[in-house]
Amino acid sequence: MQGIRDIHGLYHLDPAHSALGFRVRHAGLSRIRGTFDQFHGHALIDGGNVQHSALMVSISASSINTLVTDRDAHLRSADFLDVATYPALTFVGTDFEILDDDHVRVGGDLTIKDVTRRVDMVFAWGGSSTDPFGNERIGFQSELAISRAGFGLTWNAALETGGWLIGDEVTLEIEASAVKKGSALPDEEPPGRRTQDAEAAADPADEGRPARRSLEPEASTGSAGEGGTVSASQPAAPEVQTTNSEPQTTTPGSVEETRIGFLRRLVRRG
C-alpha cells in the first residue's frame, strides 16, 4: 500500500463513497447531527513536494439534511445559510504539510455565506487501494471545530434556564474517498497564459453577489474538542471587513496559483 509521500496526481472526490457531516449541541443537553448530501471536489497531490499540492471542495448549501423537514427549511433560510443568496460552501486548501506517515495538515480558506476564514485541518491517512473496477483510490478522515458566529450564523433562542438553544461550536466531519484521474500535474505557464486562465476562471455568477467578508484566522483547528455547556450569553460575532476581492491564498504567478486556477475550473464544471 502506498503512503502519503507516494501519492502523485489529480484526484476527484467520490461523493458516493464519501460523507460530509456536522454535529452541534442542542439546549446544552445533546448533539444534533446532519449531513450535506451534495458536494464535489478535486485535489492535485504531490506527495514528494507536498507544498505544491492544492485542494478545492464545493458543497451545495441547500443539500443540508438533519432528517427533520421543518428544521432543514429553517437552516436553509436567511436565519442561517441563506441558500437563495449563497448556494455553496467552499474550501480552498493551499498550505500542505506532512506531519508524519499517517497525518497531513491542510490550511486554506473556508467560505460560508459571505464570510471567509483561514482554517487548518489535520487529515488522517486512510490508505490507498485499487477497487474491483480498476480505480486507484485514496482515503482521508478529518474533523474541524468552528464557531458558527464567526461565519455570521448567529440566530439563536434563549432558554428559560439560561444559556442558548443552539451551541456556537459546530464540528465538521469529513470521510473522503478520492479516485485518481491522472498522473500529470499542471506546471507553471507563461504569464500571458496565466492571465487568460485567470479571466477564464472568473465566475460570472459572482457579479451582483454581496461582497465577501474576509476575517482573521479561525482560532479553532481540527484537533479542537466539542466544548462543554452552552454559554450563558450569546457570543458576539467577530468584527469583519468587507472586501470584493478573492482571499489571497497563493502567490501570484506561483505553481500554487496555477494549480488553484486549474481546480477552480474543474469545480465549476461540477
TrEMBL record:
SUPFAM superfamilies: YceI-like. Residues 181-270 are annotated as: Disordered. Residues 230-253 have a biased composition (Polar residues). Pfam families: YceI. InterPro entries: Lipid/polyisoprenoid-bd_YceI (IPR007372), TTHA0802/YceI-like_sf (IPR036761). It comes from the Bacteria. Coiled coil: none annotated. Residues 206-216 have a biased composition (Basic and acidic residues). Residues 10-179 form the Lipid/polyisoprenoid-binding YceI-like domain. PANTHER family: PROTEIN YCEI (PTHR34406). Belongs to the UPF0312 family. This is Polyisoprenoid-binding protein YceI. It comes from Luteococcus japonicus.
